Amino acid sequence: MYEVEITVNFSAAHRLRDYNGKCEQLHGHNYKIQIAARSSSPGKGGMVIDFGDLKKAANQVLDTLDHRYLNDIKPFDEIEPSAENIAAHIFREVSQNLGDQGAMLHSVSVWESDTSKATYLKD
Ligand SMILES: [Zn+2]
C-alpha cells in the first residue's frame, strides 16, 4: 500500500456551544491539516495522486474556512466546530472536489495545537 500526504493550514475562530470549559469562549486556532490518500499501486506517472491536484482540492475547501468564524459557516452553524467535525467536513468536501480520485482519500487530521489532533478516517 502506498500513501501520500499533504499538509495545509488555515486560521479561524470558533467556540464550542455544548462544552463546559475554556473552548466555550470565542478563540482562534492556527489549524494544521494533514490529508492522506492511499492506493495499492501507483497509477499514471508512478503517483498515487498528483500532490498538486490534492492541494488544489484541499485549498478550495480551506478557502471557505480561512479567517472566518466557523460557527457562522455551514455545517458548523448547526454542529459543533470541533476538530473531529472539521476533519469529517474537510474529508467529505475534498473527496467531492477530487471527483473520480476521491475514492483514494484515506484520512484527514486536524491539529488544533502542536499536541492535539483529531483524525477522520475513511470507513
Ligand atoms: Zn478551540
Automatic annotation (TrEMBL):
Zn(2+) binds at residues 14, 27, 29. It is an enzyme of class 4 (lyase). One of its GO terms (molecular function) is 6-carboxytetrahydropterin synthase activity. It comes from the Bacteria. It catalyses: 7,8-dihydroneopterin 3'-triphosphate + H2O = 6-carboxy-5,6,7,8-tetrahydropterin + triphosphate + acetaldehyde + 2 H(+). Binds 1 zinc ion per subunit. The active site is at residues 23, 67, 112. Its EC number is 4.-.-.-. Keywords: Lyase, Metal-binding, Queuosine biosynthesis, Zinc. InterPro entries: 6-PTP_synth/QueD (IPR007115), 6-PTP_synth/QueD_sf (IPR038418). One of its GO terms (biological process) is tRNA queuosine(34) biosynthetic process. Pfam families: PTPS. Pathway: Purine metabolism; 7-cyano-7-deazaguanine biosynthesis. Its cofactor is Zn(2+). Belongs to the PTPS family. QueD subfamily. This is 6-carboxy-5,6,7,8-tetrahydropterin synthase. It comes from Desulfomonile tiedjei (strain ATCC 49306 / DSM 6799 / DCB-1).
